[in-house]
Amino acid sequence: MICRLLMTGILLGVLQLIAGASSAQNDLDARLAAADPATGEKVFRACKACHTIDEGGKNRVGPNLWGIIGADVAASKDYANYSKALRDLGGSWTMERLDEFLADPRKFVKGTRMTFTGVSEAAARADLIAYLNASGPTPTSFGSGQFAPNEQDSTTAPTELFGVLVPGAGAEETYYNCTACHSERIVAQQGLSRDNWAELLDWMVEEQGMSELDQQTKAVILDYLSKNYGEDRPNFTN
């Protein structure tokens, strides 16, 4: 009798695990079917400080991500700086794995060198995965859209993706380039002149390994920071 009860309990536990996995898969399938690679490209801007995604692109702090969907984990022949934790993970980058990883990289791969905090919004992760999927030799189709952008205007990323930063021209560029390595709250707590912001950006590149910004993007970011987080700190965030 006791053995039968134990077996019943074990069976129920297994069924619950299967049901949970099936539910998570169905949720991801639904999100991917509605995903927009054009919006995902904007989400990817948070990754561009450390990664390129064009075919044959150079490695930066992290490896080039062309064709990452379905690729073996930590297996780029041209990149030698993978963490031991990532190498030990093994397997391949399925969309399910990427969804979990992108939600919280340091939780999914304990010991990873990635400082990126992740993409908490589930729909934004799906958009990002759709963009990564489109940036490869054999993209997979999702639902009936087959990578057709949503009918809504996707020229501007949703403002909620910019965290605590004040909306305005330059918020998008500032958010995506800064949050690759740290929270946007660190930016919002500062109050510097344009020259001091410029000096800080140069220091981040020279001493902290940040990828150098092109002059146009740098100018947009400096305009935004000096206007919204200048010495008078008009938008100071605790």
UniProtKB/TrEMBL annotation:
UniProt signal peptide: 1-24
Domain of life: Bacteria
Molecular-function annotations in GO: electron transfer activity; heme binding; metal ion binding
Coiled-coil regions, chain positions: none
Keywords noted in UniProt: Electron transport, Heme, Iron, Metal-binding, Signal, Transport
Positions of the Cytochrome c domain: 35-136
Protein name from the UniProt record: Cytochrome c
